[in-house]
């Protein structure tokens, strides 16, 4: 009986769960493309979009993720955030990337792309740099920044920053908004 228990433990430890493979979790059309950098973490497929021609504005990045039944990545925990940073650096992506967090609807009230809020009761993780996002000075004498609405992750600094991402005609005409790389996430339910 003892030998069977040891053998079962060895087999379980030797052969990882099939559910943690790219083929099982990621959308099929992403798996077959050599342009995609895919990794699995905690049952979620992450697509690290890389290349100068892949750069998008915030709403374009959101739409691109949605087109494959996903959404912009949501690093809601320190572990997920660190996984994303480590993966970006592993893929030689040092530029800032869009994540699925913004305060477009109401300044200072950050909301994830799944509709949940950054501050959700006592559950609250953020990685904003000092002076950015929730760390920004507020009040009557604070500088106004009503247009810094979309959040990026800077992997080299392992910090988040909120940036201007308005869609007004002048910005589109003169390309004032910098296009950025982004990370999409997919769960098995999303990609079915």
What brief labels describe this structure?
8-stranded mixed sheet; about 20% strand; alpha+beta; globular; Ca-Dep_Lectins_ImmuneDev; Mannose-Binding Protein A, Chain A; C-type_lectin-like; about 190 residues; about 30% helix
Task: Report what the structure shows.
Pfam families: Lectin_C (PF00059). There is one protein chain. The protein is an alpha+beta fold and 192 residues long. The protein has one domain (2-191): Mannose-Binding Protein A, Chain A, CATH 3.10.100. Helices cover 28% and strands 21% of the residues. The chain is built from seven helices and eight strands, in the order αααββαβαββββαβα. It has helices at residues 2-14, 22-25, 28-31, 58-67, 78-90, 169-174, 188-191; strands spanning 37-41, 44-49, 71-72, 97-102, 111-112, 148-154, 159-164, 181-187. Strands 1, 2, 3, 4, 5, 6, 7 and 8 form an eight-stranded mixed β-sheet that branches. A hairpin with a 4-residue loop joins β6 (148-154) and β7 (159-164). The chain is globular, with a radius of gyration of 19 Å. The model is unreliable at 5-17 and 134-143 (pLDDT under 50).
């Amino acid at each position: 009986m003892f030998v069977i228990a040891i053998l079962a433990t060895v087999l379980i430890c030797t052969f990882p769960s099939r559910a943690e493979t790219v083929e099982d979790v990621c959308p099929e059309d992403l798996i077959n493309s050599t342009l995609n950098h895919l990794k699995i973490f905690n049952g979620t497929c992450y697509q690290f979009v890389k290349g100068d021609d892949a750069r998008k504005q915030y709403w374009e990045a959101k739409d691109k993720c949605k087109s494959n039944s996903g959404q912009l990545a949501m690093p809601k925990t320190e572990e997920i955030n660190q996984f994303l940073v480590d993966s970006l650096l592993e893929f030689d992506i040092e530029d800032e990337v869009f994540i699925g967090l913004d305060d477009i609807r109401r300044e200072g009230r950050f909301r994830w792309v799944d509709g949940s809020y950054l501050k959700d009761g006592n559950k609250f993780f953020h990685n904003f740099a000092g002076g950015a996002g929730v760390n920004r000075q507020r009040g009557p004498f604070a500088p106004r920044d009503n247009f810094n609405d979309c959040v990026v992750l800077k992997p080299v600094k392992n910090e988040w920053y909120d940036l201007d991402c308005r869609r007004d005609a002048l910005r589109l005409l003169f390309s004032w908004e910098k296009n950025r790389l982004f990370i999409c996430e997919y769960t098995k339910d999303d990609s079915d």
